[in-house]
UniProtKB/TrEMBL annotation:
The protein's name in its UniProt record: Uncharacterized protein
Span of domain Small ribosomal subunit protein uS4 N-terminal: 3-92
Similarity-based family: Belongs to the universal ribosomal protein uS4 family.
PANTHER family: 30S 40S RIBOSOMAL PROTEIN, SMALL RIBOSOMAL SUBUNIT PROTEIN US4M
RNA-binding S4 domain boundaries: 93-136
Keywords assigned: Ribonucleoprotein, Ribosomal protein, RNA-binding, rRNA-binding
Zinc recorded as keyword: no
A Pfam match: S4
Keyword RNA-binding: yes
Length: 137
């Protein structure tokens, strides 16, 4: 499956949020967005712009691309309860995120690599799919 491999500091600057866990992205040298007009006066974001930025933050935070995110959103909207809560529950139950939350990897990207290199058994079976959905129990 594909994943974003481009410049990470640029994404953090564009979203004005440290979406990658590495310490070097927490304090950026340039506090303004990238591009030709990054340093000029910023306009107030519209409601759509705010929603888009939050969606992009979640996508980059969990390391998933647009189509997979859209599929997660469809499943969350069909389930009972609040769509946002269902979406976060689904994203948090991914195998790579669980490995990161357990502290077995320093970042989500490192957790993804550990999973793809077959370091984990689930129900006595090797699993190398980072998006594998874990259930309670």
């Amino acid at each position: 499956m594909a994943r974003y491999t481009g410049p990470r500091a640029r994404i953090c600057r564009r979203l004005e949020y440290p979406v990658y866990e590495s310490a070097k992205f927490l304090s950026l040298r340039k506090s303004y967005p990238p591009g030709q007009h990054g340093q000029s006066r910023r306009r107030k974001l519209s409601n759509y712009g705010i929603q888009l930025r939050e969606k992009q933050r979640i996508k980059y935070l969990y390391g998933i691309l647009e189509r997979q995110f859209r599929n997660y959103f469809k499943k969350a909207s069909l389930a009972e309860g609040a769509t946002g809560d269902n979406l976060l529950i689904t994203l948090e139950s991914r195998l790579d995120n669980t490995v990161y939350r357990l502290g077995l990897a320093p970042t989500r990207r490192a957790a993804r690599q550990l999973v793809t290199h077959k370091h984990f058994l689930i129900n006595n079976r090797l699993v190398n799919i980072p998006s594998y959905n874990l259930n309670e129990g």
